[in-house]
Amino acid sequence: MTLASKSLEQPQCGNDFILEQKPMDIEERKAGNFWLFKWLFNWTSSSPIMLRAVEKKILSFLKTPYRGFFVDIGPAVGEADKIWTISMNTDSKEEPMVLLHGLGAGVALWVMNLDSFAKDRPVYAMDVLGFGRSSRPTFSNDALICEKQFVKSVEEWRREMNINKMVLLGHSMGGFIASSYALSYPERVSHLILADPWGFPEKPADSNTSRQIPLWVRALAYALTPLNPLWALRAAGPFGQWIVQKTRPDITRKFASAVEDNTKLLPQYIHQCNAQTPSGESAFHAMMASFGWAKYPMVHRLKDLRADIPITFIYGSRSWIDSSSGEKIKAQRVDSKVDIKMVNGAGHHVYADKPDIFNRYVNEACELYKAYATNLNVRDTTESDEEINDATLQVETQQKAEHKDQNSEHALSEGQHTEEVATDLKQQ
């Protein structure tokens, strides 16, 4: 058993059965008084206790001790909201990193990243309000109000945690929320890291009429637009886990190297995260123009982020997310640090597809921009221009070396692809 499996969620006792039956770290949810709501609640086969158990099992594969707890953020959206949080290496004096997951996910999906991130700094990962084990309040149906509610929940969490400033990392929808938070509270963000962020590009005018998309697919997408994205998983009830296993075996395979029995644990975790009241999912639905685009895209908004806050984009080369938004934002922010990383062979879940490369990019970005921030502070002191230039040159040299390594990886990947094609042609 690893140290992480003995998390500090609550005091341990000799009777594990009693602990599982009456855990103290469970956010109880009510199904409503109407009989139909109760029936639907039971049909989905959702259970906060099951979600807690499978999360603990996945996180038991961490090598670094962690602590899990609820943070009471008060009436941020609902009457008394709580955000489920895990923390690691909180004794470190370095600036903390805060992680925001994407749609339908939770803290356990960072299992291949947390050890690496927490090696040199404090790390906090939260179940975004409306998802995972956090409270599931009713969000507004207005896209901008809904977005502000997410931002408010993050800010109330930060205040309760007494974090002055943080590196904020968001994946997919979490990247959209992180960007909106940085725009609202720039003094609290030292570095914005966006992993394959959702909601950045504008929706193309011909997105629904493309000839490449069959008519029946466009008709089905139009018919399902009023529904939440993951409605089918809940409609399947107790078969939801089986649906995840059969329809998304790729997600399960991503965690094979880190999680034993991943073929059962990951589908069960994803099912339990999304079989409950779709509070955050409904909020996502309110913010989207259609699944791939936001009503208020971030591409024309992030240019207004305070100039001294660096941004790092990390995209998967095979992702469905349009990475051109990162290039546009970089062109708009000529006086700011904007870096764009492309992880070859990775899809939308870039943090899980190529975790070693993703972790390296995140950690290197934090170190490089920490040096960059130090240089900015030096300019306000009596240090000589020569010393400042030497420090800046060192950072830029590191960046150039990193870009060279990235280009080499890309060239190697392209060369392998060419060889594979040539071999196929020869065999034919």
Catalogue the unreliable spans.
Answer: 1-22, 35-44, 216-225, 381-393, 410-428
Mean residue pLDDT:
79
Number of separate structural domains: 1
Helix-strand string: HHHEEEHEHEHEHHHHHHEEEHEHHH
Q: What would you say the CATH architecture is?
A: 3-Layer(aba) Sandwich
CATH domain topology: Rossmann fold
Q: Mind summarizing the main beta sheet?
A: 8 strands, mixed
Q: Summarize the amount of helix as a percent range.
A: 40-55%
CATH class: Alpha Beta
Strand content range: 5-15%
Please report the number of helical segments.
16
CATH evolutionary superfamily? Alpha/Beta hydrolase fold, catalytic domain
Please give the number of β-strands.
Answer: 10
Shape: globular
Distance between the terminal alpha carbons, to the nearest Å?
51 Å
What is the chains' assembly state? single chain
Strand order of the largest sheet: 1-2-4-3-5-6-9-10
Could you name the key traits of this structure?
428 residues, alpha/beta, Rossmann fold, 8-stranded mixed beta sheet, 10 strands, 45% helix
General description of the model:
- The chain is an alpha/beta fold.
- It has one domain: Rossmann fold, CATH 3.40.50.
- Helix content is 45%, strand content 13%.
- The protein has 16 helices and ten strands.
- The chain has helices at 16-21, 35-43, 48-59, 114-117, 143-161, 173-184, 215-224, 231-235, 240-247, 249-254, 262-274, 279-287, 324-332, 350-353, 355-378, 385-427, and strands at 67-74, 81-88, 97-100, 123-126, 166-171, 189-195, 288-290, 293-294, 311-316, 338-343.
- The strands form two sheets. An eight-stranded mixed β-sheet has the order 1-2-4-3-5-6-9-10, sandwiched between helices.
- Helix 5 packs across helix 6, helix 5 packs across helix 12 (279-287) and helix 15 packs antiparallel against helix 16.
- The longest helix is centred in the last third of the chain and has 43 residues, at 385-427.
- The chain is globular, with a radius of gyration of 22 Å.
- Residues 1-22, 35-44, 216-225, 381-393 and 410-428 have low confidence and may be disordered.
- It holds the Pfam family Abhydrolase_1.
- One of its GO terms (biological process) is phosphatidic acid biosynthetic process.
